[in-house]
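Running this now, will post back.
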Amino acid sequence: MKLHYDPATEAFRAELRAWLDENRPTRGAMESEPSRSSAHIPDWSRAWQQRLFDAGWLVPGWPPELGGRSATPVQQLVYFEEMARIPVQRSYNPQGLTIIVPSLRDFGSDAQQERFVVPSLRAEVSWCLGMSEPGAGSDLAGLQTRADLRGDRFVVDGQKVWTSGAAHADWCFCFVRTNPDVPKHRGISVLLIDMQSQGVDVRPMAELTDRERADFNEVFFDGVEVPRENLVGEIDRGWPMATGSLAHERGMLWTSQAARLEHLVAELCAAARERGLDADPVFRERLAALHVDAQALKFMGYRGFARFARGEASPEHSVLKLLGSEVEQRLALEATEALGTEALDVEFAGFGLGVEESPPWARRYLFSFANTIAGGTSEIQRNIIAQRVLGLPRR
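Update: finished.
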């Protein structure tokens, strides 16, 4: 079987590829000012995102006034294939671009959309996402951060944790409990919180994988006052935004993940040949299994996309996040064990990441545990697959 696109779609690809070759940031620019978190937007990255927006290449499926060109679903798939080919992200505030702005488009008031959507798309405003809490990581419905409505303001008290980019974010898209007397999936609301507000305390968390880049943070709210107009949607009706936010995040994540896995398998194969490891039949068999899994991820994604394009349900997308994160973890472990001490300091070429984010194999293995948690843990994904895809009963 050979996958191919029609001539019009390939013309779309050629136009995009030519534009990227001419306009993408240089390696020198990227190395001159590395991004320090997922909400820290260096000057070169802001200029890059604005070029994408102005040319209609930031969110191609959206209308031109929102950084797109009303691209078809197939054209959007091609777009993500090509973006995965270059070593630079389209935004260095990914949660702002892929989760929060789409959520504001879906649920925000006209005033909120006018204030935040285009400035966020143009990298003039950066965001963090206030979901996880110490006692409610993957169980968002168990959150305890309170927001009490007092007149025309909410008063917020509580704590978030693992809040990516909070130390550099301008705003937080924050899930809070506004009604403790109803079932836990109800009584949740979303507030837009200015991170410079009095009572907001951000404490970066040291990371084993990178001492210079602290992306995770604890965020404490102590009597933080938030204007009522910063409520997104209806009060106590925030749960649909929680599920919608994660759906935005997972949308076409598999395209970049599949491309990255293919690249990393090739990198490991090359390293194995250089060191004579390919003579070991057991190691060759493990490499072959990783290659097969990477290909399975890619073609499962294409099959799911084909169903989506026909307007059908796509159970494949429930599996892709689980498979991708765990294959990448297994790949990094194989590389670390095979290369030994070299895995601590041998860097591989960046792919789908900025060049400053090309860690040694051992660091990638350590960070892979975060990828099995972010966007829904592997355990949660298995429950979703069992109950919603396979129809198995709850125990």
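DSSP finds twelve helices and eight strands in the chain. More later if anyone needs it.
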